[in-house]
């Protein structure tokens, strides 16, 4: 259940005044089993996002956190599928950082990973959070991961998002008796 809070959006990475973004309530995620699958490509950014997600999970009383790594974002959906198949998780956060280069790699991988993660959400009926940054350059990526104190660490949003979605899922799983 969400605790009372002042509604405030996560700050925009570029500091511009905006109503965009997520308000960040606190949820009680005690007892939830959360897995994080992170890519190692662009590891400075991914590690910062992972740290933000873990911090947010802990702030929601989540203590059962499993960390797994894969090489690149392309490997994330398959690894996440293996974790979900184990039945050991209430929800996952997928973390990766795609930075546009001079070839079509960015487009192909972004599309594949995005479709793959959505498929897992619907196939497994469990929250699989889309923590994949798709950035035009390194500066954008660092800003969105709070690297060097810049911008806002999106990993924090994803930690809270997975708890919120797991609680919603559990509420209706109980009603259905599944
Ligand atoms: C090959 C590649 C490239 C060019 N760029 C990225 C990137 O920006 N972010 C990322 O997570 N991974 C990248 N990769 C690696 C692919 O995700 C994948 O690991 C390889 O294509 C092997 O399947």
UniProtKB/TrEMBL annotation:
Q: What is this protein called?
A: 6,7-dimethyl-8-ribityllumazine synthase
The family database entries (InterPro entries) matched by this protein are listed as: LS, LS/RS, LS/RS_sf
| Source species of the chain | Effrenium voratum
Query: Which HAMAP family does this chain map to?
Result: Lumazine_synth
- Give the record's pathway: Cofactor biosynthesis; riboflavin biosynthesis; riboflavin from 2-hydroxy-3-oxobutyl phosphate and 5-amino-6-(D-ribitylamino)uracil: step 1/2
E.C. numbers: 2.5.1.78
CDD domains found in the cross-reference section: Lumazine_synthase-I
Molecular function in Gene Ontology: 6,7-dimethyl-8-ribityllumazine synthase activity
